[in-house]
Amino acid sequence: MNLSQFDLFTKPAGTPPADVPVDRLLREMPGPIAGAFERMEIAEEEMERAGISRTPRDCFRHLCPPEAMQGMADWMYRAHARELCQRAAKNGDLRPGTLAEVVCALHHVSLKSPLKHDAGGLQTRSFLAVLDLVGKPAPKWLVDDWREPYEGAHNEMLTETRHATRQEGRR
């Protein structure tokens, strides 16, 4: 049975048989809908990993990827969700941007204009931290040879970028 004949927004002439497996329904859904379900599954996994239940403070409602992260890889979203869940588990502030949001914001900026050396270094270090957070190996070609112009420059730039990607609705 081809599930594409069922319009998801209007009542179709027929309905899929009850014995169609849910995983098949999800596989054959249009991309954005299937992607939303995949993100929900990742969010649930990360909440469970952090020991967070589905309560108002559980951060589930805050795990929707921000606009800058739309279209990014699942592992990038997982890093974002993991960092937020870790903060929520410690009753931390959810508003500052995650490392994944910092990487995505710098990525979008780099598409419009080349990053200066310091911003490129921040992007590289943040990207490596995101990879480490989700247990992915760093590519061999990616080398962190950035030298801080002064002690603490990286942390200062990271704090500023987290503030710039801050989500006030996350509390």
User: What does the largest sheet look like?
Assistant: none
What is the succession of H and E elements?
Answer: HHHHHH
Q: What's the mean pLDDT score?
A: 81
Query: How many extended strands?
Result: 0
- Shape summary: globular
Please work out how many helical segments DSSP would assign: 6
Radius of gyration: 19 Å
Overall tally of structural domains: 1
Percent strand equals: under 5%
Structural class: mainly alpha
Compact description:
The protein has helices spanning 22-27, 31-50, 74-89, 99-112, 117-133, 153-164.
Element layout with pairings:
Layout: H1 22-27, H2 31-50, H3 74-89, H4 99-112, H5 117-133, H6 153-164
Helix pairs in contact: 2-3, 4-5
Features:
mainly alpha; 0% strand; globular
Notes on the structure:
The structure is a single chain. The chain is mainly α and 171 residues long. It has one domain (3-164). It contains 6 helices and no strands.
